[in-house]
Amino acid sequence: MLTIYLTRHGQTEWNLERRMQGWGNAELTSQGLQDAAALEKRLNNLHFDAIYTSTSKRAYHTAEIIAANRKVEIIKDDLFREMSFGDWEGRIIKDIEKEFPAEYKSFWETPHLYTRDQGEQFSEVQKRTESALKLIMKNHPSGTVLVVAHSIFLRILIAYINGIPLEHLFKQKALGHTSLTKAIVEDRKPKIVFEGDMSHVEH
Length: 203
Hints:
It comes from Peribacillus saganii. One of its GO terms (cellular component) is cytoplasm. The chain is α/β, with parallel strands linked by helices. It has a single domain (about 1-195), classed as Phosphoglycerate mutase-like (Rossmann fold). The chain has helices spanning about 15, 30-40, 55-65, 95-100, 100-110, 120-140, 150-160; strands at about 1-10, 50-55, 75, 145-150, 180-185, 190-195. Strands 3-2-4-1-5-6 form a 6-stranded mixed beta sheet. Strand 5 and strand 6 form a beta hairpin. It is globular. The protein starts with a strand and ends in a 6-residue tail after the last strand. About 35% of the residues are buried.
């Protein structure tokens, strides 16, 4: 059996400023660092065969904190990156909503119909999540791995495992920073055990 733990990166400055991040990047806040350390403590007794992380700094910095003193390989791969938002990246969300009302509404309410000539479509990210999952399953027929990634990437991956169509993507539970989701793979069939747990974080 393969066990896969999924977590979202720690809070960043752009999260606080309510900016779209995507392939852009911002530093972890003190809260983000603290929450990542709390997750490291929670997972301290688990052995990981590998840690897979997005190539975005906020994700691999979180992965490095969780890895701590473990002798475990941290594998950075673009497959695990957040959805690209094109020219929305780095911009304040309220400004995007004001300037692109129809596209922004479609993004959140009808993601399966969302389309722009900038960034990625949800279906493209879905293909990436499927490829990422297949990569892990190929490299690890059994054992335990950790994935450190991003909000929409993880929502799409969890939806894929649960058989939820893109149409209902944002009807799922929102994933907090450093939230923990556990999946198991038996007979090449992944299944979610628990989702978005935040019990290690004290606010």
